[in-house]
Amino acid sequence: MMPDGEKKGITVKIDAALHAEVRQYIDSRNMTMADFVAQALYNELHPKIQQEVGNMRTIAFQVPDEMYQRIKEYLSRHSMTQKEFCLGLIGAELERDQQIIEVQHESEIEEVLEENEEEMDMEMTM
Hints:
Layout: H1 16-28, H2 33-45, H3 65-78, H4 82-125
C-alpha cells in the first residue's frame, strides 16, 4: 500500500476539536499519529475512486444524526471518505438503473418482433 523508505517529518497546527477527533480515531485503532497522517495523505493522493476530469458540481444534503454516526463508523472501518462513499453509491445505483433501462429496451424490441411475426403469420394464412 504505502511504500517504506526514508522518513521525512511534517509538522502542522490544527484545530483542537479536530485534533481530539483524530486522537480518538487513532487510539481506537491502535495507530500512531504518523500512521494516521501517512494513510490520510496516501488516500488523498491516491483516491480509491478516480474522479472524471471535467466540470464538477456540488451535491449537499442533511441526514439524521443517528445515520450520520453510522456512516462515520462505516467510513472509519473501510478507510473511506464521505465523498468516496457517496460517489460509490451513486455510481452503483446509476449503473443498476442503466441495466434496467437496457433490459426494458430489449423487452420492447422483442415485443415488436413478436408482433411483426404474428402479423406475417396472419398474412401468410390468408
